[in-house]
Amino acid sequence: MKLDEVLEKIEPADLRSREQASEHWKTVGKPLNSLGKLEDAVTRIAGMRRTKDYTLKKKGLVIMCADNGVVAEGVTQTGQEVTAIVTENFTRRATSVCLMAETAGVDVFPVDIGVASDVPGVTKPEYKVMYGTNDMLKGPAMTREQAEQAVLVGFRIASELARKGYDILATGEMGIGNTTTSSAVVSVLLGKNVEEVTGRGAGLSSEGLVRKIDVIRGAIERNQPDKNDVLDVLSKVGGLDIAGLAGVFLGGAACHIPVVIDGFISSVAALCAARMAPESADYMMPSHRSGEPAGGMVLDELGLSPFIECNMSLGEGSGAVAVMPLLDMGLAVYREMSTFEEIHVEQYEEFK
User: Fold this and answer.
1) Model pTM?
2) Residue 31 — φ and ψ, nearest 5°?
3) In the chain, what is the straight-line distance between the N-terminal and C-terminal CA atoms, in Å?
4) At what angle do helices 178-190 and 240-254 cross, to 10 degrees?
5) In terms of Cα–Cα distance, which of 294, 296, 299 is closest to 284?
6) Are the beta carbons of 231 and 147 closer than 8 angstroms?
7) Distance between CA atoms of 230 and 254, rounded to whole angstroms?
8) Active-site residue 316, yes or no?
9) What is the pLDDT of residues 24-43, one digit of tens each?
10) What is the rounded CA–CA span in Å between residue 86 and residue 65?
11) What is the DSSP letter of 339?
C-alpha cells in the first residue's frame, strides 16, 4: 500500500453521532457541562466511533523507538546507546510508562522502527526502516522513500491493533535526540524561528542549548525542506519515530478509533499527520502540555486543549497513558449514571 492510498481512506468523524452523544449528556442527572473537557472528550469519541454507545475497554500504547544521527553533533546529554537500553526495558516492565500503563490498564507495544542496533524481544524486520537516521547537519536524515516507509509502518501497526479490537491508542516514543528533530520539523511546518521552538530536552546546559539551536538552524539551511511537503520535511530534518507516529495517527483515523497525543514529539507527529490528511485531526485526543517551548504551539495549531497540566516531560507515552483513567471516568458517568427522568428530577434548562 502506498501513502496516497492510505490518505484516501481517511474521512471526517461522524457529526450525527457526536450530536446524539451531546444530547444524551443533557439527560444525565447532574449539572449541565459540569465535567467540562471530559464531556467534550466522550462526545468527540462518539463521532470517531460513529456511535453514541461505545466502550474503551481495550487500550494500547504504541511506542516508536528510533535513533537520530544528529546526536553526533553534541545536541544531547546522553549517548545514543540509551535508546536501545530503554527500548529493551519496555519488554521487562522496567520503565516509568510500563508501570503507569499497568495501573491504567493499557497494553504496551514498543516498536523498533530505527534503533541503531537490534533489540532482543522488540526488533522485527518488517517494522525496521533503518539503523538510525543520518546526521541531518551533513545532509538529509533519510530518503523520501524511507520516510514514507516509516509512516506506513505506523499505519499498519495501528490498523492491526484496531483489527484486534483495541478501542483507543496512545502514542509514545523513545529516541535520544528526538527533541532536536522535532524542533526542526515544527520550526519548518509552523514557520517559527528555531530559537522559539527549541528547548533543553533532557536537561541540556545553556551552552548545550545554544549548540542545539545552531545545529537545527544549520540542518534546515543545508537541506531546505519544503514546508508544504510533509514527507520532504520528515526525510530531511525529521526522525523515524516522528514519521512512524504520524502513521499511527493516520491509521487510527482510517480505522475510526481515537489516538491520544503524548508530549512534544508525539504532538509534532500529530501535526505531520494533520498536514497530510486534515480529517485525521478529528481522531486526535490531547493529553498534557509538554514543557518544551513548542509543545503548546503545536496543540494550539491542532485546535486542542490539554486535559492535564502536570509539568511532565518524560516522554515514552507517559502523558497519554496518564489521561486514560480520566477518559474512563467520563465515559462511566456518560454510560451508567441515571437520567433526570429516572431519578424523578426536573431536567436542567440550558441557557446560551
Assistant:
1) 0.96
2) -55, 140
3) 48
4) 60
5) 299
6) yes
7) 19
8) yes
9) 999 999 999 999 999 999 99
10) 9
11) B
